[in-house]
Amino acid sequence: MAIPDAKEKWSGKVNTVTLGATPAEGGTRGSTVTIGGRDVHRLKGRPLDRMRNEILGFVFQFHFLLPEFTALENVMMPPMLAGLSRARAADKAAYWLERVGMSHRLTHRPGELSGGEQQRVAVARSLVNGPEVVLADEPTGNLDDETGDEVHTLIRELADTEQKTFVVVTHKRSFSRYADRVLLLSDCRLEPLETDS
Q: Which of 29, 133, 136, 183 is deepest in the core (most CB within 10 A)?
């Protein structure tokens, strides 16, 4: 799997592919994952941590928000881990929560949010450090169809307005109408899938 310099080639795109060999998973035996021409499997320690925290953003089927922290505090975590002050991290988190329509829920904990709201917070968290690419693995798998469509629309909007690249894995073929490029995984092969969009 190769991800070129996303700022130049994929900016503002939504792609649907498999994430089975991503840096988040540690890759698979015999696979190669390159990002910006760098072999991710050769990265160790701080360079790998930096790539995971700053170059890539992640959204999963389950939101993985920390239950004891508010929405704002959950989104503050990545920039604080990257070395930003608490005040600057709070500013960035508030901005991204506003962008995903959650500015009215900053002080709510995950257990006080609906499933769709939890995923919106997770999307904000994935974007807060300004990644080149957001990898989303079944981001609407735990949501009902209507809420899932809202999250898909949000991802499309953010790809367009923020010039962010999203690589989305999903079983929901209906998502293809939001994507610029769709690949189908069949018999261990990725094949382009023609869409009507």
A: 136
